[in-house]
Write a structure and sequence with these properties.
The structure is a single chain. The protein is 34% helix and 15% strand. By secondary structure, the protein is α/β, with parallel strands linked by helices. It has a single domain, classed as Rossmann fold (3-Layer(aba) Sandwich). It has a 4-stranded antiparallel beta sheet. Helix 5 runs parallel beside helix 10. The protein is globular and about 50 Å long. The termini are far apart.
Length: 314
């Protein structure tokens, strides 16, 4: 019998929007109408068949995008976060955030040791988990056991797309130098930018998975540009995706890249099953503590998987 597994949709926070107008709340046994979820989340609107999320930025998104340095949606001072975002990120400590708003060491432009950078969305930011439980920190610790690293630099952010991560990566290169290694947990490809008639501003959008052929194509081109830059500058790029059942990653051409490593679902199931058995009684094994993202067992697998790919290349 074919194994199946329900996966929370981390790209939409706690809600997965479907075409019938219902928002399915993790762990998938509750439903809220679109109006009810709007009251809870305050950031969804339906416009011409495209679901958009307009975050409460302290400054307009278009102003953030114009900056020549990478800046997160919200500042590194947790007291300035809106309540809904703070409530979803209770595991994050103030001292874990840098001045650019990322869950990372302070960015520097002089590196003593190998310069490693992590890219991704909420799964690389580590939503619902303590930092030592997240796959990038595990990878960082694995490598630092044998090599001197210049610091833990993580530019991932919840809700980020391939577009925002790649464009911010180039801003990072300009300001803080080229890393020697990049680890990229590729978000699903239904994320882009749009214009909200309600807020009259640029917003992040989430499209229906089956309706985003053009966006997926463009995301693939962005990934290609990052890959070519890495090739030209002797940067090792190691990519995979938490969205391992997403056909758009293959359709976009990313899966065929030599820098992308496809997860073996059977291996993932075996590993996570054993991990949960070995850590029986502990929390956040299947789901993270926000009940919206995959938990520690998946993070442990991703870390093991991509660390092995890195070591094989050395």
């Amino acid at each position: 019998m074919k194994k199946s597994r329900k996966v929370p949709d981390g790209s939409r926070g706690k809600f997965r929007i479907v075409k019938d107008g219902l928002c399915h709340h993790a762990p998938w046994d509750q439903e809220k109408t679109h109006d009810e979820s709007y009251k809870c989340d305050k950031h969804y609107e339906n416009s011409i068949g495209i679901y958009t999320r307009s975050l409460f930025f302290l400054r307009p998104l278009k102003d953030i995008l114009k900056l020549d340095k990478p800046v997160a949606d919200f500042p590194g001072d947790k007291t300035l976060w809106p309540n809904y975002f703070a409530d979803r990120n209770t595991e994050i400590l103030q001292e874990e955030l840098n001045s650019h708003g990322y869950r990372s060491n302070s960015f520097i432009n002089k590196h003593d040791g190998k310069h490693v950078l992590f890219l991704g969305c909420s799964y690389t930011w580590g939503s619902g988990l303590f930092i030592e439980e997240t796959w990038p920190k595990i990878v960082y610790n694995n490598i630092s056991n044998n090599e001197k690293l210049s610091g833990y630099f993580n530019m991932a952010y919840p809700g980020d797309s391939v577009f925002s991560q790649v464009s911010n990566a180039f801003k990072y290169f300009k300001n803080f130098g080229n890393p020697q290694v990049i680890f990229f947990n590729v978000p699903d490809l239904n994320r882009f930018y749009g214009y909200s008639k309600t807020s009259k501003s640029i917003v992040k959008i989430l499209t229906e998975q089956n309706d985003n052929g053009l966006i997926s194509f463009l995301a693939g081109q962005y990934y290609y540009m990052l890959e070519q830059y890495c090739n030209a500058n002797n940067i090792q790029l190691f990519s995979f995706s938490w969205s391992y059942e997403n056909k758009e990653i293959k359709n976009a051409g990313i899966e065929d890249s030599k820098t992308f490593y496809k997860i073996n679902i059977k291996d993932l199931f075996h590993f996570t099953k054993q991990y949960k058995k070995d850590h029986h009684g502990e929390d956040a094994l299947e789901l993270a503590r926000d009940n919206a993202h995959l938990g520690r067992s998946d993070h442990a697998y991703w870390a093991k998987f991509i660390t092995e790919k890195y070591r094989e290349s050395q």
